[in-house]
Amino acid sequence: MRRSIATVSLSGTLEEKLHAAAAAGFDGVEIFENDLVASPLPPREIRALADDLGLGIDLYQPFRDFEGVDDDLLEANLRRAEAKFALMLELGVDTLLVCSTTAQAASGDDARAAAHLHRLAETAAPYGVRIAYEALAWGRHVNDYQHSWRIVADADHPSLGVCLDSFHILSRRSDPAGIGDIPGEKIFYLQLADAPYMAMDLLQWSRHYRCFPGQGGFDLTAFTRHVLAAGYTGPLSLEVFNDVFRAADPHRTAADALRSLSVLEDALSREHQPGVTAGPQRPAVTLTRLPEPAHPAGYAFVEVAARPSTATWVRTVLAGLGFAHTRDHRSKPVELWAHGHTRILLSSTDPRLGHTWSDDTAVTALGVEVADPDRAAQRAEHLLAPALPRRRDPAETRLNAVAAPDGTALFFCPAPTDREETWLADFTAAPVHTPTHGGATPLTGIDHVGLFQPFDHFDEAALFYRSVLGLAPAESLELAAPDGLVRSRALTGPGGGPRIALSVSVLGRGAQADAAGGAQHIALACDDIFAAAQALREGGLAPLTIPDNYYADLAARTDLPPALRERMRADGVLYDRAGSGEFFHFYTPLLDSRLFFEVVQRTGGYDGYGAANTPVRMAAHRAEHTQ
Amino acid sequence: MRRSIATVSLSGTLEEKLHAAAAAGFDGVEIFENDLVASPLPPREIRALADDLGLGIDLYQPFRDFEGVDDDLLEANLRRAEAKFALMLELGVDTLLVCSTTAQAASGDDARAAAHLHRLAETAAPYGVRIAYEALAWGRHVNDYQHSWRIVADADHPSLGVCLDSFHILSRRSDPAGIGDIPGEKIFYLQLADAPYMAMDLLQWSRHYRCFPGQGGFDLTAFTRHVLAAGYTGPLSLEVFNDVFRAADPHRTAADALRSLSVLEDALSREHQPGVTAGPQRPAVTLTRLPEPAHPAGYAFVEVAARPSTATWVRTVLAGLGFAHTRDHRSKPVELWAHGHTRILLSSTDPRLGHTWSDDTAVTALGVEVADPDRAAQRAEHLLAPALPRRRDPAETRLNAVAAPDGTALFFCPAPTDREETWLADFTAAPVHTPTHGGATPLTGIDHVGLFQPFDHFDEAALFYRSVLGLAPAESLELAAPDGLVRSRALTGPGGGPRIALSVSVLGRGAQADAAGGAQHIALACDDIFAAAQALREGGLAPLTIPDNYYADLAARTDLPPALRERMRADGVLYDRAGSGEFFHFYTPLLDSRLFFEVVQRTGGYDGYGAANTPVRMAAHRAEHTQ
């Protein structure tokens, strides 16, 4: 299907928006009037630029407060419309979005509104312009798509149809099934926007918090299915008012936007069965089909970069938790630390040896085990994930990798088999095994990886992991850290697979993004939290100290036995409970303000991350940092 | 009266919050439980620290979901409460805030709630603890202060009273007059918070958008008057959940907070007539009384700093608009440019000559004409405005100046009289008068000054100008600039006086705060916009070019005569209308991405700032900037 984006969804000047939309691969744009009014380019030059960029102009919008007025104002409104029709001729755009009126003085008489819209369509026809009438969710009289359709049907003019906008329909929790009652050829335009569910004024929600499909809480697959089933064949067009996107790099935003439509089309292509729902008049639409999602079974490895002065600390943590330095990469300064099938790569950022992706301590790469690495890479490529080049000698394994929005490398690794080591063959036995402390520790794998995101790329990151790996995002949470609010959102593979916890500073303020809140972490799973804490301690590193006040509060609000609480206190173990599930977890201190480890034990099907304890952890990291 | 602040209102660790509250001059704090739980300080050390800092601990909060539960849970809740009473003994705090329950399972039976609260008070009494029961605006059954008071009255225990919170009452638009029905001694605590009026979920509104009294839309003077009339004598305590304050410097926030209470008390002290409303039991409360607000008549001057390479441009603008360089400061590299009684100071930031407050091009100082400069300075000092030292030779006039939140210097100037030049005497005749171009231009004064604010200090700045100068703030507006949203708020003196338009990047992102959105400006008033534009042009500088598309849109949506529109287009004049008032205005290009001038003409009582045109102006500045 044709893919479009409204210029209001992107930051910058109109010219910059058009370049960004074209670069991402959109077929067309909706021109938002304010962008045109503020542009120094005359309409004909805007059209020429769009032509040069291979973009159609699919819609001009919005035209407001037209219908239901008195006769004098109707004539003035028709003159106002004619000026826009003339402009549209120059722009080469044939559809005008007309929003249902919000004027206090407007009449609520449907027949009058229909008569006015008929006049408007009649006036538009000679210009070759079509009128797409949209029910704003906060329209004065018309705020529901079925109401707008009744008026359009009554007005009965070939140049008049409806515009459907998923936000206006789903924000009011209207049932989209009724879309099937509208003839496809009378749906003149389709605007798509997702949004997180929020209890707030519809207008404010719409103007500030819309996001791209797959980033919010609406079921846009079901919604769009209804529209296609009605026979709509026009563009899938994104109209997203979002405070962050308005201030972010438009090229990044446009790629994020196109990715959202690819995932939507892919999901629809897997469901859409034209034979079942098609009527005789149904035209064919072609939906983009992507390679299957990777659905990784788990982490093949997590790679950490550290400077030589801090790598020692990472080795102490790993050895303490029972990892052994078993291998070294053949050609790069990368150590492989293993604990059973759990693997952490430690890459040196020693400038003498050449650094990797970061100059600083950080989680730099995630390796996920997938059944078909080539297919996973192809899907990622279709989703505009930048492929990462690998400098390697010819004997090394080819591993597909792409860059996540925050620059983390995502590697698609085949699972090692009994006969074949795959990528592990690039690592040779380490000359000296670092001895592990504490013997066999109770680690069972990597529970999750926590990645603090750049402010502008939080929603983009959630969609990236969702679409590339097929992970399912949970609801966003807000946490009150000592230096400001932090937003957090976890993604999990259906039926297991890797867990990723994304977080971001709600205001993107410097102090917070730099301090404890902004750190990344690796959480290791275990089946005996106290044995793990003891092993770490015996290895020479004490778990992060949690204030006694936390345990006093825990005593007040839970019935945990005093002996257990005392043991938790001694080891800095925190606690959460949900239903019959329990969660015990401790942290290491913070390295370089950038990296820490967590060890977690889940029981009884606990499926969270102990988010309520995060502010306590952040304060404890901050306290040690400022000591 | 005693002044307190809840620790949740400030950023940082508990220790940092206590230090900030004490440094600003608060008498006490409310300790928010999460701050204590995350603190490494044992309760006795927290108390000792507060003692050392001269702070009382006036409230411990919150205790949630206590009442209306089944019998088993009641016993568990009482045990939970006893743990907190023991903690409170160590902290030395005698009042516990208990919020009305939000639990789904809680009973809505008032008698049961009263019985439970009686049990709680009975349990608290031996610890010397009082229970202050608060109706949360989103409480499950109790969400109104009159309801909470009925339950407290029924429970009838000397250790049980109510806590009143202005947000919970005014957000629901409850009438605070009923507070008079509560005996003053049963109002155990008073929490004050303002908020901008927003159409959103009460909980989200409360958790993110509270602000200090005078920064939002609530009438806290009237509210507090009711509480004092009831006979309340406890602390005025600020409990403000605000995303920005959570991430800002706590010392700045605490000073801002205390300033808000000073203004509130001052306003009350001017109204409070104990003789009229006092009952026999009324105890005396002492309200802080400040010197009268300055109520400036207008601007004495606006000072602009420019580097030598850019000062030439400023001179071109000023000369073009009819200003003459009439004088130079005796001891500093400052030129006085005058047009009648309108004065702009141009200070050189040439490092060879010593720079002033900024190293860059900027509006650095505002001089306002006040009847009593000493009184104005005393008021500012009481409001914690940092006094600015003046390096001067002994012969110079002493001018009182304070620093506004963004660092702009605010000078309190006496009006020159026929007999005395006052501060103007520090300026001597310039050796060479720069000739003005265009002869007599139609300027009538300074219309307003536009100051782009640092992200963290927008609300603080509005309260600063409101409290120090007695200006009245208008509602905040949001504008969609090319690089993101901008929030804008104007302040005007009652009955004239200087106008100040504050603005801020809604997300505080770098690109926007640095580019056109972030600039400061001086708007000059005139009575003939076209004559002013022509004068500027003849002086060698063309007004900022506004796109033809803007005028095409203006033609479509207004009935302005074509000849007038064409003249506006030729001079880059923009237009706004409100009622019978009209606004014509043009801009200069942008200097150094930091400074521009505007010329405005108001007719028919127009009282706005043409805000709808601001995005067009920003795009035009941005376009010239990137050419």
- Report the radius of gyration of chain A as a whole number of Å: 28 Å
> What is the architecture of the largest domain in chain A at the second tier of CATH?
Roll
Low-confidence stretches of chain A: 275-283, 352-358
Please name the CATH topology of the largest domain in chain A: 2,3-Dihydroxybiphenyl 1,2-Dioxygenase, domain 1
Report mean pLDDT of chain A, rounded to a whole number: 91
Task: Kindly name the structural category of chain A.
Answer: alpha/beta
Total domain modules of chain A: 2
Helix content of chain A: 25-40%
Largest chain-chain contact? A-B, 62 and 62 residues
Number of strands of chain A: 25
Oligomer: homodimer
CATH class bucket of the largest domain in chain A: Alpha Beta
Enzyme class (chains A, B): lyase
Catalytic activity (chains A, B): 3-dehydroshikimate = 3,4-dihydroxybenzoate + H2O
Keywords (chains A, B): Isomerase, Lyase, Metal-binding
InterPro entries (chains A, B): DSD, Glyas_Bleomycin-R_OHBP_Dase, Glyas_Fos-R_dOase_dom, IolE/XylAMocC-like, VOC_core, Xyl_isomerase-like_sf, Xyl_isomerase-like_TIM-brl
